[in-house]
Amino acid sequence: MAANTLTDVARNVGLSGVMRLAGLATRLLPIPQPTMLVGPGASERLGQAIHDFGHRKILIVTDATIARLGLMLPMTQALTSGGTEFVVFDAISPDAPIDEIEQGVALFNTEGCDAIVAFGGGSVMDAAKVIGLSAANNKHPLRLVGYFKGLRGPAPIYAVPTTAGTGSEVTVAAVVSDPLSQRKLVIADTRIVPKMAALDPCLMTGLPRHITASTGMDALTHAIEAFIGHWGTAFTDRMALTSVSMIYQNLPLAYANGEDLMAREKMALAASYAGQAFTRANVGYVHAIAHQFGGLYHTPHGLANAIMLPHVLRFLSPSITPKLALLALRARLGDASEGSANLANRFLDSIEAMNRKLGIPSELPALRATDIPALARAACREANLNYPVPIYLSQEDCESVIRQVLPVKVSVRKRKPASTRKSA
Ligand SMILES: NC(=O)c1ccc[n+]([C@@H]2O[C@H](COP(=O)([O-])OP(=O)(O)OC[C@H]3O[C@@H](n4cnc5c(N)ncnc54)[C@H](O)[C@@H]3O)[C@@H](O)[C@H]2O)c1
Ligand SMILES: [Fe+2]
Fold first, then answer.
1. Would you say the CB of residue 302 lies under 6 angstroms from ligand 1?
2. Ligand closest in space to the Cα of 224
3. What is the pLDDT of residues 155-166, one digit of tens each?
4. Residue 224: half-sphere exposure toward Cβ, Cα within 13 Å
């Protein structure tokens, strides 16, 4: 739904009424799910399967790092040996900038492609979704921002995620960035969900540790925000809770030993489950704030979420204590006899402990105090108009939550006053 339309309706029936209506719509809206190939070698099997669909020519969208690492070889060899033609577009940067998507659309058209393989992290998958939608509708990506802005669906999209984080392989969303306005923009359409996806843990064994950490925390944030919001269903709750349980068990293992194929596969599945949860039940203030950090400071998406997650949850905790307690139980942090308040606190503490274990900082070095009012305004606007948040934050509340991650605060706290410092 376009923000303007939502604002108009909100004036008449009230914001909570609009959010209830939108929640009902997401329950009724059929969201297609890709056929999933899972396990070592899944990307090669996807190549064989795509060949059987008989496409004329495939556009493979990826980024330069993935191309350099040769991660696509098993899949491209499967395409070649089946006789399927393809062309590789490897120019996507983090956060899928609009101008790169335009280049992809031009290549899709000039090469006469009729299908797309997205081979990469969330940035690549989202770029591929928008390339497909933009080409099908002959519409500039900026004119697709919002909900269902294209008349026609894209050519078939197949996805091979190389990070275990965004869940974009199962979601209706594509997040792109506009370098001119320094904003991240969301394009949503049920027809951009990929037709088939391969979760191949072999592609993830070389992920740098900090990317394993931040993308894993993105998946955790999806699961938690989908669970604590108002649009959860029995299905999304099951997906979210299972995902939380799997992430608590496997993210520390994948971080400690990148070659642990079982932990990598479980993380890939957990990220997809979290994607299935939030593509219906949506996200909340952590994402709303993280998107502003991404737009203004180019903070990697998962890192921004990880830094904000404990602070937003602590602020919301009085209104979501029973849900936090349930999350603690699924994370195996205690047992039901301990009472909700204790369990909820333990869950909040465990997120901070997880961040520390994964080397995620407790503050955002790029954050400037003078930016906070505008960041909070944009985050509140995004969350209040789009997300089924447990409670609404005022501008002042949101500013104080963001202020928690100001680097100054940490350095002031750590430094002892001059009078108490011992001289050397
Ligand atoms: N569509 C959705 O539903 C959805 C959900 C959440 C986030 N997002 C968006 O996804 C983007 C973030 O995606 P991401 O977190 O996957 O990161 P990313 O795709 O930006 O990749 C991060 C870095 O990791 C590298 N990389 C990826 N896979 C690798 C591998 N296997 N080995 C080595 N290096 C590898 C990439 O080259 C890149 O430099 C953001 O723009 C975010 O807003 C989309
Ligand atoms: Fe996310």
1. yes
2. 2
3. 999 999 999 999
4. 32
174: left (phi over 0), alpha (psi -120 to 50) or beta: beta
CATH number of 31-204: 3.40.50.1970
| Probe target for ligand 1 pocket from 62, 126, 386, with the most ligand atoms within 8 Å of CB | 126
Q: Distance from the CA of 379 to the center of ligand 2, in angstroms?
A: 14
Gap from CA of 396 to ligand 1 centroid (Å): 32
Domains 31-204 and 208-407 alike in fold: no
Topology of 208-407 in CATH? Answer: Dehydroquinate synthase-like, alpha domain (1.20.1090)
Closest-lying ligand to the alpha carbon of 95? 1
pLDDT digits (tens, 9 = 90+) for 90-120: 999 999 999 999 999 999 999 999 999 999 9
Entry pTM: 0.93
C-beta separation of 246 from 267 below 8 A: yes
Number of other CB atoms surrounding residue 332 within 10 Å: 11
Q: What is the largest CA-CA distance in the chain?
A: 76
> Does the beta carbon of 124 sit less than 6 angstroms from any atom of ligand 1?
yes
The 3-class SS string of 187-246 reads EECHHHCCCEEEECHHHHCCCCHHHHHHHHHHHHHHHHHHHHCCCCCHHHHHHHHHHHHH
Q: Which atom of ligand 1 is nearest to the CA of 214?
A: 15
Q: Which residue has the least CA distance to atom 13 on ligand 1?
A: 122
Q: Which atom of ligand 1 is nearest to the CA of 172?
A: 3
Name the DSSP class of 369. Answer: G
| Domain layout of the chain by residue ranges | 31-204, 208-407
Tokens of 79: 């395409």
Closest C-alpha residue for ligand 1 atom 20: 94
For 31-57, write each residue's pLDDT tens digit.
999 999 999 999 999 999 999 999 999
Question: Cα separation of 403 and 406, whole Å?
Answer: 5
